[in-house]
Amino acid sequence: MDQLDYTYDEIMADHPFAEPLVVQDLHCHGGYDEDGNYIPPRMLNRERAIKAWHEKLQSETNRPLLDCPDDMFADFYPNVAQTKYLLSEGIRQPLIDILTQIGTVEGFGAIIGQVQIPDLQKLFVEDVRGTATAHLGKGLFEAHARDEAGFEDISGHRDMWYAVRDIAFEYPECGDPMQMMMKQMQGGGGKGGEAMAGMASAVMPQNRIVPEISKQAEIMISRMTGLLLIERLAFQTFSWAKEVLGSSEDLAHPEDTTRIVDFICADEYPHVDYTQVALTEMQSRTFIGEDGQRIPGIDVIEPIWKNSMKGMFGFSGKRSTRRDMIISLLNQDLEGNRRKDEILRNFHDLETPDVMPEVHQEANLAAADRGMTY
Ligand SMILES: [Fe+2]
Ligand SMILES: [Fe+2]
Asked: What is the 3-state secondary structure (H, E, C) of 25-76?
């Protein structure tokens, strides 16, 4: 049987890299092996550990891993053609802002490292030894947080995205990323704020959802369900970014920038994997409530998961919310441009028809509410 118990240091351990990953003058996490292949950070044992816990889970239950529908999120807006069109017109600020936003949202992943972890064995009737759940506080959360936000003088995804932006746009003036986020939040007649509030509520619900379990446990689980959805959305964002960066004649160093996006992408898989395995383990076990009552795991995880799905649907499932936010930014950027109307018309003409109307999405969520498979 594969090893199921790991120490914190084992989960955090790096491969012995032949060469570190340096982007511009940033020392980033991960590195290269002898043959020059990229190896993600903290993967000496983490990947095989997650695989072993997954196999153990599969031997215990037929339950599929917790996941959202493939079509949960609308296509990225603006699409590749719209983005490249703006660049061809010399309108660069919206893409600079979007890349800054991607980096900043990646940095928010650091919150997983701040989560207070309850005594996990006391939370369940069943033995949790040798599971992903038992290792959340033994490196899994901390490795995830460091992958996203970096640690000490080693950069993680946030800075790697800022580097992608700086290389592609040759060090643009972009100001304070937090101010840029505020600008986006206030855009679109409040739609930007609505979208951001949705994402925040996916990770940090305002009200108790399953009051029978401890607040600390509920907070931990909701951080995990929210981040799992953010991770799923990230893959879609990354493929859009890669296509834009790699195929626009108006951006510099496409080979360098797309390679960094590939590295970031490679680092993301364990985040999705451990979160799915741990949440599915919890679904399959029995919680012990605050008053000692027994609660089937499914009755704890499902409501928290649905709450996160609703929040994230507001952030990126609804095409209209993000669209209003981006168009408002674009209007600001085009202020005073005498070709404004023509550029906006051309931009709208390139919009992908919404193959996933909101009614379909709403139906998906409603189905989830009725406890159907999703
Ligand atoms: Fe990331
Ligand atoms: Fe991630």
From this structure: CEEEEEEECCCCCEECCCCCCHHHHHHHHHHHHHHHCCCCCCCCCCCCCCCC
Note the CATH architecture for domain 8-369: Orthogonal Bundle (1.10)
Q: What percent of the chain has pLDDT over 70?
A: 91
pLDDT over 70 (residue 354):
no
pLDDT of residue 318: 62
Q: How close is the Cα of 196 to the center of ligand 1, in Å?
A: 18
Question: Which is more confidently placed, 279 or 369?
Answer: 279
Annotated domain spans of the chain: 8-369
Q: How far apart are CA 259 and CA 245, in angstroms?
A: 10
Ligand closest to 271 (CA) is 2
| Ligand sitting nearest the alpha carbon of 238 | 1
pLDDT tens, residue by residue, 287-334:
999 999 999 999 999 999 999 998 887 776 666 777 888 888 899 889
Q: Mean pLDDT over residues 95-124, rounded? A: 92
Q: Are 22 and 159 in contact (CB under 8 A)?
A: no
Q: Is the pLDDT of residue 173 over 90?
A: no
**Spacing, Cα 115 to ligand 2 middle (Å):** 16
Distance CA 260, CA 266 (A): 10
Beta-carbon neighbours within 5 Å of ion ligand 1: 106, 148, 157
- The label of the residue with tokens 């305002």 reads 206
Average pLDDT, the chain: 90
CB proximity list for 347: less than 8 A, separation 6 or greater: 78, 82, 85, 86, 330
Nearest to 245 by CA among 299, 176, 315, 169: 169
Q: State which residues have CB under 5 angstroms from ligand 2, the bound ion.
A: 231, 268, 271
